[in-house]
Design goal:
6-stranded mixed β-sheet, 2 domains, Peptidoglycan synthesis regulatory factor (PBP3), Domain 2, 5-stranded antiparallel β-sheet, about 400 residues, alpha+beta, Beta-lactamase, 17 strands
């Protein structure tokens, strides 16, 4: 728990919703553990905010809040997490997901007049600018460029309404059942809403995608098309500096939504996601949520690196080759003793063709919970196997044995 000392220290100094953090490296943890015990901010008198007597985090200033384990979706703490809220620019998390799954990152996107004229936060894109899709995604998530979201949506779907339909289809697929998007940037619309729980599920899904964590967790990056002398983008999400293990994801603000923040952090192999909607002190709230979350869970190792997890057929007569886990696989377990139920599924080819080298990737082992993937690890060949290693009769016997196993 004391590993996160400096996050508490940082939180104590946040007297406003927005804090300036220098562009230097993340603050070092204090040497003295006594700095951990600092008085939390006194909860301000927020009109209309009702705190339950059983609330474990009564000093939170958010109207809706949740922290979950990203792998399993287990809710560790919640406050009013199923009330519909305006998500503001946290919407862009879903825009990123759809773009990563439906777009080609090396595509060149031509900025339209519609994108150039977009209101709100901007990258100052101009009609006719040609920018790689991947770089627009960085700009969209780091600097919250509304113009970039329009350019991305039009490139992938042809229009904003068509892209919004893709966003809503993906939300239903993820299980965000009380969410509806009408644009890719979160500008106010009475039909554009989500819940804290839904947004946490959406962000958790994102962490399963290649490139997602790299984009949302980048602090600074330089692109030639950025229209200032530095050509540098700096992430608006200060949690990347304020929280040890912070690795995303997105800030948001409109008058209608209030201050919103979706945060991710990884510790001991566990990925947590927190959401605060309509928060007065969104940085403090998010730090408190992640601290609480990590204090309530511990990693439950399911598979150890190098552990044999099954076998795969090799050739017609060469029998079975054992496969082993490439790394440890752990999921979050609540310290209150409750356990997550899951099934293991080995995804390997029906047969491999020799030669097979020891350590060669041959598939993966997947943890499933109620039909949904909650974790996975690559599996490797546990030994090398050459075509001539076995004689004909031994290969024939092994083949009959594997055939017999297949029937019974």
């Amino acid at each position: 728990m004391w590993k996160r000392i400096y996050t508490r220290l940082a939180a104590a100094g946040l007297s406003a919703c927005i804090v300036f953090v220098p562009a230097a490296s993340a603050p070092a943890a204090p040497a003295s553990r006594s700095l951990y015990d600092i008085t939390p901010l006194e909860r301000p008198d927020i009109p209309g905010l009702v705190i339950s007597p059983s609330d474990k985090l009564p000093n939170l200033t958010a109207r809706s809040a949740v922290v979950i384990d990203a792998a399993t979706g287990t809710v560790i703490y919640s406050r009013d997490m199923d009330t519909r809220r305006y998500p503001a620019s946290t919407t862009k998390i879903m825009t990123l997901i759809v773009a990563l799954e439906q777009g080609k990152l090396d595509d060149i996107v031509t900025v339209s007049k519609n994108a150039e004229g977009m209101e709100g936060s901007t990258l100052w894109l101009e009609q006719g600018d040609k920018v790689p899709l991947k770089e627009l995604l960085y700009g969209m998530m780091m600097a919250s460029g509304n113009d970039a979201t329009i350019a991305v949506a039009e490139h992938i779907a042809g229009s904003v309404p068509a892209f919004a339909r893709m966003m809503n289809e993906k939300a239903r697929e993820i299980g965000a059942s009380d969410t509806h998007f009408v644009n890719p940037n979160g500008l106010p619309d009475e039909n554009h809403y989500t819940t804290a729980r839904d947004m946490a599920l959406i962000a958790a899904y994102g962490y399963r995608l290649p490139e997602f964590e790299e984009i949302v967790g980048t602090r600074e990056i330089t692109f030639p098309w950025v229209k200032d002398d530095t050509h540098r983008l700096r992430n608006e999400n200060q949690m990347l500096w304020l929280y040890k293990g912070g690795n995303g994801v997105k800030t948001g603000y409109t008058d209608a939504a209030g201050r919103c923040l979706v945060s991710g952090a990884r510790e001991d192999g566990l990925q947590l996601v927190s959401v605060v909607f309509d928060s007065v002190y969104m940085w403090n709230d998010s730090i408190a949520l992640l601290d609480y979350g990590f204090d309530q869970v511990e990693p439950e190792k399911i598979i150890s690196k190098g552990q044999v997890v099954g076998s795969v057929s090799v050739g017609l007569f060469q029998g079975e080759l054992e496969v082993k886990a490439a790394k440890d696989l752990a999921i979050a377990r609540l310290k209150d003793g409750s356990r997550v139920k899951y099934d293991q599924k080995l995804e390997v080819p029906d047969s491999l063709t020799a030669p097979v080298k020891e350590g060669e990737r041959v598939g993966r082992l997947v943890l499933m919970q109620e039909g949904r993937e909650v974790g996975a690890v690559e599996v490797l060949a546990a030994a090398s196997l050459e075509p001539e290693e076995q004689g004909f009769f031994s290969r024939l016997m092994a083949w009959f044995q594997s055939l017999w196993k297949g029937f019974f």
